Amino acid sequence: MKPYVNDLQKKMFLMAFITAVFTEMSQIVALTVDSIVVCVFMGEREIAAVGITGPFFFLVGIPASCLAVGLQTICSHEMGRGRIEQVSRWVSEVLLCAGIILGILTAVIMLRVPQMAFLFGARGNAADLQGTVSQYLYGLGIELFPFVAMSVLTPIIILDNGSRLVMISSVAGCVSNILFDFVVAVKHWGLFGIGLGSSLSVIISLCVLLTHFADKKCLIRLEAVRVNSADILEVIRLGLPQAAHAVASMIRVWILNILVIVIGGNAAMSVMTVNGTIMDFVDVIAVGIAGAVGVLAGIGYGEQNGEEMEGAVYLGHRYNLISSLVTMGVLAVFINLIAGIFISSQSSAYPLLIFAIRCIIAGILPNALIYSRVSYLQAIGKSQDAQLMEMAVNMVCLTAFAFILSVPFGIRGVFAAFPVSKIFVILLYYLRQSGGVKHLRFSVRDFMGLDDSFYPSVRNMIAYPVDTMEECVLASEQVWLFCKGHHFDQRTAFFSSVCIEEILTNIIQHGNEERRRKVRSIAEIRVTLSGEDLIMRVRDNGAAFNLNTMARMLTDETDPFAAIGMKIISSAAKEIKYYRLYGMNTTIIRIGSGNDAGSEPQKKNEEE
User: In sequence order, what are the residues at sequence separation of 6 or more whose Cβ sits closer than 8 angstroms to the Cβ of residue 547?
Assistant: First the structure.
C-alpha cells in the first residue's frame, strides 16, 4: 500500500533535497574545475598526482563525516522531541573537542607530507611524482579543521532553518575556489597553489557559516561547555558508518591506485582521477536525496512518528528512481562530450575513459539506493548495519571484484568492478530483506523495520492536514473527543481543544500576512499520548512564529484581554517546544492531564 504523504512533508523533503544537492554540487563543481584547470594548464603528470592524493581527502573525511553524521543523528532526534537546548550543548561540545584534536593532527600531517606521498602511491612506477604530490599535500594540509568544522556545522545550521545561509556559504566557497584556481594558473604556482586555494575557500565557507550564530533569531547557540567524554563517544558511535565509509574509501582508493598504476601506468591513473570526478558529480542527486531521507527520518524517529518516516523513505525511493533514469540518459547521450572535456579524443587514454563512464552509468541506480539506505539506518541509530553496508560496497566487494575482473579484462576490469559491486550488494540486501526470492515484494514498512510503538492505533492518534477555518473548528472538536475518550478531565479537554483551535486559526488567518507574495496557509496536526500527558504537534508553512517568545512578551502586557488565546495556551501547557526547519514551523505542546477514572483506564487504552 502506498504510504500517505501530506503536502507539508513533500515540501520539506523537496527543500531538504535542494539544500543538500546545492551544497554538494558547489563542492563538486569546485573539485571539477580543479581537475579541468590541472588538465588544461598543467598536464597528465599533474592530474595523475592529484589522483594519487585521493586518499588524503578520505583521510580528512573520516573525522568530518563521523562527527557530522553522528551529531546530526543526535540533534535530529532531539529536534523531533523539541529539546533545542540539548542541541546547543551537543554542538558546542563536538566543536571544542574537534578543535583540540584536529589542531594537533594538522601539525603531524604537515611534518610528514613526504612520507604520506610515498604511502599514497608515489613510488615504484610513480616515484617521479613524489615531489609533485607533496606540493599538493602542503597546500591542502591547513584545511583539516576548517573542513571538519564546516561539515559539522552545515547540517546543524540547516536544522536551525539556516538552509539559505548554507547555500550562500557553498557558493562563496565554490566561487572563491574557482577564482584561486585561475590565479594559480596565470601565476604558475603549480599544485601547491591549487591545494592552497582549496584550503582558503573552505575557510571562507566556514566564516560565512559562523555568521548564523550572530542572528538573534537562531535557536541553536554556541556556548561555553565542558567536554563530556561520554557525549563525544556517543557522537562517534552514531557516526561510525560514515567514518567506516571514509576509511574503506581511503583504503580502496589506495589499493586501486596501486593496481591501476601497475596495470596501466600514469595514463590509466589519469583516467581513474577523471573517473572519480565524474562519479562525484553524478552522485550529487543521490547524496541530496539521501540527505533529505536522513534528516526527515531522524526527526520522525525522535518523535516516534512511523507514518512520517514512511513518507520520507517512500519519497526517497521515488525520486531515486526518476533521477537515476534521467541521469543515465543524459550521460549516455553526451558521453563523448563529457569525456572530451577532460581528455583529448586523440589521447590513448580516451577509449578507456569512455568505458569508465559507461560503467558509471550502469551503477547509478544501485548506488543511489545504497546511499538512501545507509542514510536511513544512520537516522534511526542502526549504525552497525549501516557500517556493514558501507564496508561491503566501498571496500570488500569493490576491491575483490577489481582483482577478480582485472585477471581476464585487465585495466577495464578494475573500472567494471564499480557497478558490479554495487549491483551485487543491493541485490544481496533486497534478497535478505524480503526473505528470499519467493518473497521478493515487500512494503515500505517492511523495509523500515520499526516496532509497533511507532504506529499508534487510530484510537490513540489524530493526524490530518488543515487549511480552512471550518477544519480548524473540526480539529478542536476532534481533540475534545480524543481527550474525553481517553478519560482526561474536563479542564484538560477544554484547554486542549482551545489551544489547538487558537493555533490553527492564527495560522490560517495570519500565517502568511508578512510575506510579499500570498501563499496559502497549510497546517498539519498530530495528537498522541505520552504516558498520562497529551502531545499536540502542529506544523505549518507560515511565517516564523515562536509561542515561547510570544509567551515572554505577554508577561509584560498590561491589558488582561490582549492576546487572550495565546495566554490560555501559555497557562494550560506543561511544556511548549518550537523549531523551524526548511521554512516550516513546528510547535510541540505537552499538556498534563487529570484522569476521571484514575490511571487504569489510561493504561488500558495505551495497551490497546
Answer: 503, 566, 569, 570, 576, 578, 587, 589
Helices (H), 343-489: 350-362, 364-379, 383-391, 397-409, 411-434, 444-448, 469-485
> Where in the chain are the domains?
11-446, 456-607
How far apart are alpha carbons 257 and 260 in whole angstroms?
A: 5
Lowest mean pLDDT among 148-162, 191-205, 380-394, 434-448: 434-448
pLDDT in tens, 218-261: 888 888 888 888 888 989 888 887 777 777 777 877 788 888 88
- Residue 491 identity: R
Residues 575 and 589: beta-carbon distance below 8 Å: yes
Which pLDDT belongs to residue 60?
81
The pTM of the full predicted model, rounded to 2 decimals, is 0.76
The angle, 0 to 180 degrees and rounded to 10, between the axes of the packed helices 350-362 and 335-342 is 130
CATH fold of 456-607 reads Heat Shock Protein 90 (3.30.565)
CA dihedral 302, 306, 312, 315 (to 10 degrees): 180
H/E segment holding residue 590: strand 584-591
Q: How far is CA 270 from the centre of its chain?
A: 31
Cβ contacts of 595 within 8 Å, gap of 6 or more: 487, 488, 489, 532, 601, 602
| DSSP label at residue 562 | T
| C-alpha–C-alpha distance, residues 518 and 520, integer Å | 7
pLDDT at 38: 79
In this predicted model, what pLDDT tens digit does every residue of 124-179 receive, in sequence order? 777 878 888 888 889 888 888 898 899 889 988 988 888 889 989 999 998 998 89
Hey, what long-range contacts does 458-461 have (CB within 8 A, 24 or more apart)?
Answer: 459/485, 459/605, 459/608, 460/486, 460/528, 460/529, 460/605, 460/606, 460/608, 461/526, 461/527, 461/528
Instruction: For the chain, give the number of residues.
Output: 608
Using a 10 angstrom Cβ sphere, with 0-12 exposed, 13-18 middle and 19 or more buried, the burial of residue 460 is middle
> What mean pLDDT is reported for the chain?
82
CA nearest neighbour of 190 among 198, 181, 199, 200: 181
pLDDT band at 593 (very low <50, low <70, confident <90, very high): low
Residue 220's CB: how many other CB atoms inside 10 A? 25
Contact yes or no for 584/8 (Cβ under 8 A) = yes
Among 539, 544, 576, which residue's Cα sits nearest to residue 300? Answer: 539
Cβ-based neighbours of 387, under 8 Å, separated by 6 or more: 240, 241, 244
* pLDDT reported for residue 289: 92
Nearest to 67 by CA among 304, 378, 380: 378
